[in-house]
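Task: complex structure prediction.
Instruction: return structure tokens for all chains below.
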Amino acid sequence: DAGVIQSPRHEVTEMGQEVTLRCKPISGHNSLFWYRQTMMRGLELLIYFNNNVPIDDSGMPEDRFSAKMPNASFSTLKIQPSEPRDSAVYFCASSLGGTQETQYFGPGTRLLVL
Amino acid sequence: GQQLNQSPQSMFIQEGEDVSMNCTSSSIFNTWLWYKQDPGEGPVLLIALYKAGELTSNGRLTAQFGITRKDSFLNISASIPSDVGIYFCAGRGISGGGADGLTFGKGTHLIIQP
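Output:
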């Protein structure tokens, strides 16, 4: 199994630019999660999908952040416009779902907004 | 929201020593997970616990789901250099079924001196 795939692995952009992060979950998993990791706040859940439907987006910082899951094998997290405080590592994770799920993480996208 | 307190924040130990870390919650969890994160990578699941009192081992790692359902412990016996990394606990509370997101502790940084 290829595991969760994220792209790009690294992203450096200037403040105000649009950033799009991509995730391909493990085949057959029906839940997908986006996390943000910083030194100050640790791992924070941003949003999660179940069967391609957003279930809880209460962790999304503000309207500049949006996430989509057009099909079972692809999701995007978009930041528009980006700000320096958005610099972090963004992880995507997937799971089979259900009441006893195990989440499997991708390698992360390291975002630096200058 | 749910809070997880993970301790210690960091550990400096000698190779061969045993390691203990724990997480406590202000609310009841019905699932406890322990992850390890290597530098530049995403968290990788080590052990999953689903029942109060459950004790589960994975090689030199042993984790327990506390009887009160508000805590969990991870022990590593006879530490080796490759055990270095950040260990995260994660829990899922009793908020109904479905693909609820996990709450993560802030992590325990394990550093091993040869």
